[in-house]
Structures are given as structure tokens and as C-alpha cells.
Amino acid sequence: xxxxxxxxxxxxxxxxxxxxxxxxxxxxxxxxxxxxxxxxxxxxxxxxxxxxxxxxxxxxxxxxxxxxxxxxxxxxxxxxxxxxxxxxxxxxxxxxxxxxxxxxxxxxxxxxxxxxxxxxxxxxxxxxxxxxxxxxxxxxxxxxxxxxxxxxxxxxxxxxxxxxxxxxxxxxxxxxxxxxxxxxxxxxxxxxxxxxxxxxxxxxxxxxxxxxxxxxxxxxxxxxxxxxxxxxxxxxxxxxxxxxxxxxxxxxxxxxxxxxxxxxxxxxxxxxxxxxxxxxxxxxxx
Length: 286
Known about the structure:
Blueprint lengths: L4 H13 L10 E7 L2 H9 L8 H8 L6 H25 L4 E7 L12 E6 L6 E7 L5 E5 L2 E4 L7 H6 L3 H13 L10 H13 L10 E5 L14 E4 L1 E6 L4 E5 L3 E4 L5 E5 L18
Parallel strand pairs: 1-2
Antiparallel strand pairs: 3-6, 3-10, 4-5, 4-9, 6-7, 7-8, 9-12, 10-11
GO molecular function: NAD+ kinase activity
InterPro entries: ATP-NAD_kinase_PpnK-typ_C, NAD/diacylglycerol_kinase_sf
């Protein structure tokens, strides 16, 4: 048996009239909306976007966004949605008080990672564009295959394998040194190469109890536009601003968050987030 839409509506109305359903009719309603990307950009400039015409928007934001006019259109569309919701609420109940509230910042959230965070374009063959600030250093424009940041717990995994030195690389470096006329006091043999390689790689790992992060920049491109910076190191705070098109921020290889142009992430380690672990020694086992 098929029930027509009119029959469904009539049945629902009859249920309301019989008080089987108790509709929720609040006296007050608040519409909360997040700031549009246009508002966010001009809040950083401490300027009202309403005072700019389309041409001024293109001049102000044209270097950062492909279409500043499209940014304005999307902002206007968001405002129209808010106004439409407000009109519907007003028409439904004239006695209802409707207010609109706006979050003055783009929506932000707090995530935790135990081992590492990877930031970069989703496609492996596409380069990643971003600005990065290590601790309180300068904000540096970068182009690379992505960036990893790890804790001591994750330092023996991806971070280690990105940066580890191979015996082949050590042997080739020593060969270049010899060809340059530089002499070593000892004879370089396979044992020494293995020892150099082992000692270098051991320094890449660090303890999980240390409140610091290790960062690695994968396949960096350095030129006049993208200045040189340390491709690996330690930090207490890392700020990254995305310039990517189809990027993700991946936590511990499982949780994936969109990280496209305009998105910012601040990476820090807080003592209150530390895990409490228990070690069981043999002498205390029954």
C-alpha cells in the first residue's frame, strides 16, 4: 500500500491536534554562524570588508586567492542563508525572539597525536605549498613534498626513516672528501662506515618523555622564492599556514583532516596531555 504525500501530511497534522506529538516551541532562538573566510581575512587586517568594493577586494586579496570576487559572493550567500533561517523562524512564531550570533573566528578545534603528524598534498606527485614558523622564528614560505612532525614516541618510525643515513651515502661522501684532497687520520673501511652510519642514525631517536618535537621537511625546493631553512630539527612550537589545494593533515597515520589554503595549525606539546605509563619489571612479578 502506498501513502501519498498529502495523506502523510494530513496524518501528521491529526496527530498534532490529538496532542500525540508535542511540538517544541522555544520562546527564544539563537542562530550561530561562523565567520566567513572573507570576514576572517579582514579581521586580521583590522578593516571592515564592507568598506571595500569588488576592485579593492581583488587588489587586497588577489595575491592570496584566485578569485576575491568569488570570496565575496560566497560570503553574501552565507549571509542570505542566515537571513532565510531568521525569516522562517519569525514567520513560524511571531512571539518568538530570534537573535543572530557570529563566531568572530574561523572554527578551530583541538586534536591530539601520539606519534606524528604529516602535512601535505593528498596526491604523492603534487608539491605542497605552505608557510612555516619554527618556535619564534620568521614565517618562511616553503615548497616541498610535505612535512612531518613527531614526538619522541614516534621518532623511531617515519621521522627516522626519512632522515636516516645509509652506508652507501656515507661511502660516497667520504669519497668526495678524499677527491678534494682532504685526508683522514684513519683508514676508511667497511667497519668505520658502518660505525659512522650507526652513530648518526642513533641521534635521530629521542625519548618519549622529552617535551619537544622533531620536524622533517621532505624533498624541499630552495630558490629565490622559497628560502633555505633547516630541513630537520627540534622545536617546542610549530605554526604552519597552508597554501595547498588538496592537502590533508594526518594524525598518527589514521585521522585525516582537510588542510587547504587558508587553514592554519599550531603544533605544541603540553605536559597535561602526557600519557601515564606503567612499567612492569621482572622482580615485581609474582
